[in-house]
Amino acid sequence: MNQGQDLIVDQRYDLIVIGSGPAGISAAINGVIRKKKVKVFGISDLSEKLTKAPRIDNYLGFFGVSGMDLKNSFANHIQKMDIQITEEKVDAVYAMGDHFAVSTRLNMYEATSVVVATGVSIKKSIPGEDVFLGKGVGYCATCDAPIYKNKVVAIVGYDVHAEEEANFMLDVASKVYYIPMYKPIKKIREGIEILEKKPKEIIGDDHAKKLLFQDGELEADGFFILKDSVDLDQLVPGVEIAEGHFKVDRHMETNIPGLYAAGDCTGKPYQYLKAAGEGQVAALNAVSYLDNR
């Protein structure tokens, strides 16, 4: 599907799992074992945090294992169960009453229950980002594209997926600036001006006007902050957050019936084994929720 078209609604799933780390993989495995129709969103490496761990001594049965080897064990496990990872970034989860709508940059998916296992983002917001959110600052360029037709936009990208939105906006906006917060840049279209500077602050009055750098400033009509993860309360409108994490009960259920969370996104301690256990609890309770409908 081409960017800019209406989102395509895929088939409905029993359970959608968002995240492919220990919590997400555990949830997916338990959902499949219970014969539910499961879809998993994540990355091919499953978990960047896990793969970078040099040695793990407290994962039961895997003393001294490297993060990469543990990740490979996870990958082998889900391969044997024919669990596929869909590499689409989830932008939002909407509670629709009898189901959930899960929106990615290109598609819309539906599920009767959802387990969010996104981990936590350690990236800090740009000062002014929260103040001007919805007032010239946004998190989805393709979503807001019509607003900025023939206008100037600046896109701060935290991973290569942001390049897709920058490339798309070139056909809409009169001028596109791209500020990458990563290296290397993979594929930015000719005509997009790349600024390799660190954003300091977004300023304005009733609307965002400028992006400040250490050594200058950039004026634009719209500013998009495209992170590799979305703040939890923005990911799921209406969900209760406590100290920056999903507020869940002992069943790993949030305040929204049918919506569960597991792993680091539910709070400390940030431990792989704790995450895997929570993923199982979340999935089993999601299964009970499905069976009791």
- Specify the CATH homologous superfamily of the largest domain: FAD/NAD(P)-binding domain
Rg on CA atoms, Å:
20 Å
What is the end-to-end distance?
34 Å
Order of helices and strands: EHEHHEEEEEHEHEEEEEEHEEEH
- Number of helical runs? 7
Number of strands: 17
Helix content: 10-25%
Under the CATH scheme, which class of the largest domain? Answer: Alpha Beta
Taken together, the total number of domains comes to 2
Question: What is the level-2 CATH architecture name of the largest domain?
Answer: 3-Layer(bba) Sandwich
Class by helix and strand content?
alpha/beta
Percent of residues in beta strands? Answer: 25-35%
Mean pLDDT: 92
What can be said about the biggest beta sheet?
7 strands, mixed
Question: How would the global form be characterised?
Answer: globular
Task: Tell me what the structure shows.
With 293 residues, this protein is α/β, with parallel strands linked by helices. The protein folds into 2 domains: 8-121 and 230-291, FAD/NAD(P)-binding domain (3-Layer(bba) Sandwich), CATH 3.50.50.60; 137-226, FAD/NAD(P)-binding domain. Helices cover 23% and strands 28% of the residues. It contains 7 helices and 17 strands. The chain has helices at 22-33, 48-51, 67-80, 141-144, 162-169, 232-235, 272-291; strands at residues 8-18, 38-41, 85-86, 90-95, 100-104, 107-116, 137-138, 152-157, 175-180, 193-194, 199-204, 208-213, 216-219, 222-226, 241-242, 245-246, 259-261. The strands form 4 sheets. Strands 1, 2, 3, 4, 5, 6 and 17 form a 7-stranded mixed β-sheet that branches. It has a 5-stranded parallel β-sheet with strand order 7-14-8-9-10, covered by helices on one side. Strands 11-12-13 form a 3-stranded antiparallel β-sheet, with no helix packed on it. Helix 1 (22-33) packs parallel to helix 7 (272-291). It is globular, with a radius of gyration of 20 Å. 36% of the residues are buried. Mean pLDDT is 92; it is low at 1-5. Residues 13-279 form the FAD/NAD(P)-binding domain. InterPro entries: FAD/NAD-bd_sf, FAD/NAD-binding_dom, Ferredoxin-NADP_redctase_2. This is NAD(P)/FAD-dependent oxidoreductase. GO terms for molecular function: oxidoreductase activity.
